[in-house]
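Holo model, flavin-adenine dinucleotide. Inputs:
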Amino acid sequence: MIPAPFEYEVAESVEHAAELLGSNPDAKLLAGGHSLLPAMRLRIARPELLVDIGRLSDLSYIREDGDRIAIGALTRHHDVQFSDLLKEQCALLPYTAAFVGDPQVRHRGTIGGSVAHGDPASDMPSALLALDAEFVVHGPDGERTVPGSDFFVSVFETALGPQEVLTEIRVPKTGSSGYAYQKFYRRAQDWATVGVAAVRIDGGVNVGLTSMGATPLRAAAVEDALRSGADPAAAAEHAAEGTSPPTDTNGTAEYRQAVAKVLVRRALEELLAC
Ligand code: FAD
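Output:
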C-alpha cells in the first residue's frame, strides 16, 4: 500500500530534530526506516511530518566510556554485529545483532530505532534489558538518562517523550564470554516467536525475554533460582513466571510459555559452555 501523505524534513543536529518534533504533534523521527516505513505503508502509522535523523553521522559510534561501552543510537545492527570492541567487552550484543532480520535489514536498521520502536518481538531490547543498559535521551529540557527497567512501557510505547531523541545506549563491560541468545522462529529471518538473552554479570546471570509480554521482560524468577543454586534445567522451569505472552499466528500464549522454558535452559547451558 502507499503511505498517507506526509511532509519531510532533514534534521541537521539532535537539537534541530527535537525542534522539528516540537513543530508538529504528529511528527516522527526516521532513522533506518525499517520499522516505521512498513508501518506507514500499512497505514498503521500516519505521521504528518517525518524528521530524518539518518544523516546525523555523529550518532553512529561504539566507544569505551569509563567502565561502560557507549553506542550511538544511529549505529546500524551490522556495525554492532561486527564490532571488535563489543566482541571483546560485551559480546552478547554482537551475537544478538546477528539474529536481526537479514543482512539488508542489519545494514539499514539502527539499534536506537529498534529500542525506540518498543516492539516486544525485537531482539536487541531484551539483550539490552539483560545487560541493565542505560538510555540517554535528548529533549527540550536537556539530557536525561533512563535505566532499562524504566524505558519499555508497553507495546510500541517507551519512556521517550514526543519531543525526545534517543542519542546513546550505555552497556556494562561483561567481557567476551558468558553470554547466549536463543531465538525460536518458524522461518529463517522471521521475528522471534520467543527469544532469550542470557549474560553473566556482576557474579550472577541476567536473563531477558523477547515476545513474552507487552515489553521485553527480565526472567526474574529464573535469576532468583540461579542465585539460590538451581542448575539450568531447574531454573528454566521458572521461565514462564511473570510473563503474559501474546496469542497470534506464531503460537498461543501457552505454547510460548512452554517454548520459553526450553529456550531458557538452552541459553543457560550455552552461556555456561562459552
Ligand atoms: P525506524 O523504522 O526509522 O524507526 C522506528 C521507530 O523508532 C519510529 O517510531 C521512529 O520515530 C523511532 N526512532 C528511531 N530512531 C529514534 C531515535 N534515535 N530516538 C527516538 N525515536 C527514534 N528486528 C528484530 O529485532 N528482529 C528481526 O528479526 C527483524 N526482522 C526484520 C525483518 C524485516 C524484513 C524488516 C523490514 C525489519 C526487521 N526488523 C527486525 C526490524 C529492524 O531491526 C528495524 O531496523 C528496527 O526495529 C528499527 O530500526 P530503524 O532504524 O529502522 O528505525
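The radius of gyration is 18 Å. The domain at 61-171 is CATH 3.30.465.10 (Uridine Diphospho-n-acetylenolpyruvylglucosamine Reductase; domain 3).
Archived with the compound record.
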